[in-house]
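Meet our chain:
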Amino acid sequence: MSDRPEFAAPGFTAPEATAPAATALAVVAKELDAADELAVLRAEFVLDEAVYLDGNSLGALPAAVPGHLEDVVRRQWGRLRIRSWDESGWWTAPERIGDRIAPLVGAAPGQIVVGDSTSVNVFKALVGAVRIAGDGRDEILVDATTFPTDGYIAESAARMTGRTLRPVTPAQVPAALSDRTAAVLLNHVDYRTGRLHDLPALTAAVHEAGALAVWDLCHSAGALPVGLDGHGVDLAVGCTYKYLNGGPGSPAYLYVRRALQDRFDSPLPGWNSHAEPFGMRGDFEPAPGAARGRVGTPDILSMLALEAALGVWEGVSIEAVRAKSLALTDFFLRCVAAYVPEGRVESLTPERHEERGSQVALRCEDAGDVMKRLIERGVVGDFRRPDVLRFGFTPLYVGFADVERAARVLGDVLG
């Protein structure tokens, strides 16, 4: 166990500024950082002088990962070789690491398996949901604002299962549901705008219609409470290289609610998901539990890098992370209003906390060029075509002084 204290959700209250704007906001940032119980976690990441606000695309490197990977490569692979499947726990890694992710998304153990990409897991989850729904339901609803790959996969899944695909916005889902609906694929947080969709209400509406809810958690897991078990989500997927800091291309995960596991019929059965993986039988018998979501040989190096990265969460509550996330984004919007010339940017991210993820998206006429100039000056966000500046706030390592500096530099660039 870690000897770090457990972190409760702090109540961030910004004192009123009494000095000129820049000085006052810098003072506020300093006071907020001094009161931040999560600030100590910054030392557990490899960072430099840049303000890194792109953790919603690729999380920073946890300091424990390089040493752990060296052991995996030199000792587990180099010396133990094939013995590591048993002696180093390689074979059980997908379920073991899934159980480490589970508390961060509000799931009990035994319901998450790690492996493959988000795209592959979206396919498994959506086709599996349609198969559970049965032949009497011939329509799939998909989030019309989704990340493009989810839409591509939903269209392919619909063709393969003989269903009709209907794109609708999350707000339109309740009215679009019917006794034809088999499954609904939704994003918890919109990747462009940072809008947080109402997972509890939408899941309840889907269930009332007799359909299954499939959620993409890529932009919420590790940034805010999800509550998969508590809200009765049927299936969910997510990546691990954003707020979970697992590294570029780190494996994704698949959640299958325990009550559905014996009915989950994966469209990608493999020897790893067989009840007797080493039996090499010609007939397929699915493994019990979350292991049904496995396919082939796990990608051990990236998987064990992820396991080491998840160590930074020990003793940290997701509620504390959410409280700081909202405080960071509130403060950023406040600083942007103070520093950026009026009319140069427009926030696409909702002001209401219950509708906001952990990023701020600003519409800016020359956004591509602006982001290049920000990066040159040590403020790293990203650009989404045609005109969006995206800033992601990872509470484990982003501080309030970072936020103030980023907004001040943005004001200089746009001034």
Notes: The chain is about 35% helix and 15% strand. The longest strand covers residues 181-187. The first helix runs from residue 21 to 35. Residues 5-19 have pLDDT under 50 and may be disordered.
